[in-house]
Amino acid sequence: xxxxxxxxxxxxxxxYLCDRLCCENKEAQIIGLDNMNNYYDVSLKEHRLEKLNTYxxxxxxxxxxxxxxxxDDLFSKYKPNIVVNLAAQAGVRYSIxxxxxxxxxxxxxxxxxxxxxxxxxxxxxxxxxxxxxxxxNKKVPFSTDDMVDHPVSLYAxxxxxxxxxxxxxxxxxxxxxxxxxFFTVYGPAGRPxxxxxxxxxxxxxxxxxxxxxxxxxxxxxxxxxxIVEGIIRVMRKAPDKKIGEDGLPIPPYALxxxxxxTPVNLxxxxxxxxEELVRAGVLPTxxxxxxxxxxxxxxxxxxxxxxxxxxxxxxxxxxKPMIDLRTGLRKFAEWYKEYYMGGSK
Length: 345
Ligand SMILES: NC(=O)c1ccc[n+]([C@@H]2O[C@H](COP(=O)([O-])OP(=O)(O)OC[C@H]3O[C@@H](n4cnc5c(N)ncnc54)[C@H](O)[C@@H]3O)[C@@H](O)[C@H]2O)c1
Hints:
7-stranded parallel sheet; two-stranded parallel sheet; 17% strand; 15 strands; binds nicotinamide-adenine-dinucleotide; alpha/beta
C-alpha cells in the first residue's frame, strides 16, 4: 500500500492537498502531520481537520517537525513513498519580531525531514518554497533561473535555505526532491494573516484597511485549487536518478514556480474583493469603501511586485494556473459569508 506523508496537514494548502489525495487515492494511506500552533486561529485548523478525519484512509498525527525523534519514528512506522513538506512558519512580517519560530520549523524541521528521507529511502520529497525568495528582483516575470541571493526577510532566507539543503541531499544521497515556489495563495478557509482575509475582517468590523506602498504593489495571486493541482502533478513524477561522468549521482533535484502569471495591482485587487464581498452579502451594497481605505508607505520585508514565470511547470507537467482572481475571490467571499456569518463557526 502506498503511503504519503503531508506535513502542515491542518494548514491552508496542506488541508486541501490531503482532501484531494484522500479522495483520489483510496488505496493509499495519507498521514497528515501538524503541530496545530496558534500563529493564527486554531479553530480554523480544527475545522479543516474535521473534514479530513472523515476519510478512512487519513490519519492525523499531532507533532512538531523540529522533534527529530518523532519524525524518525513517523517515517520508520509508515515508510512513506512520497513526502510533501508544507509545514512551516509562514508570513513575512511575523518573522521580523519572531525569528525563532522560523529557525525551528523551517530550518531544523526541514533538516529533520531531509534526514528521515535519507534513512527511509523516500521516493520523492516535494516541499514548499516561496515567491519571497525573489526579494526585490527587478526582472519580471520571475524565473527559477534568476539569481535569488538577496532575501529581504528571514522567512525568505529560510525558504532559500531549504532549496540549498534539498540540493545537497539530492546530490549526496540521491534523494529525488522538488521544490515549489508558491505565489500568494488564496481561497476559502485561507490564512487569516493574509491580506484578503485581514482586509475582509476589518471591513466587516467597520475599520480602515491599510494598503501598503500607496497601492503601488502587485501580487501574482494564485487560487488554491491551482496550487493543489500543481503539487499533485509534480508528486507523480520525481526527477530522474542519473549517474554523471564522475560516477556520482547527478542530483535528482527540481524547482518550479507555481503562480497565476497575472500580477494584479493591490488597488484593483481591493476593488474586486469589495465587489465580491458585496455580492456574497458579506458587506451591504451601500458600503462606503473609500472611507475605509488608507494608503500607507511600504513595510519592511515587503516587496513591490511578484510575478511568476510558470512556463517550466507547463513544459514538464502540461499545467499552468488557470483560475482568475474574480472567480477565486467569489468563492472566498461565499465561504467567508457561510463560515463567519452563517453560523458554521
Ligand atoms: N499561502 C501562501 O500564499 C504561500 C506562499 C508561498 C509559500 N507558502 C508555503 O506553503 C506552505 C503552506 O502554507 P500555508 O499557507 O498552508 O500555511 P499554514 O500556516 O496555513 O500551514 C502551515 C501549517 O504548518 C503547521 N506547522 C508550522 N510549524 C510546524 C512545525 N514545526 N511542526 C508541525 N507543523 C507545523 C502549522 O500549524 C500550519 O497548520 C508553507 O511552507 C508556506 O511557507 C505559502
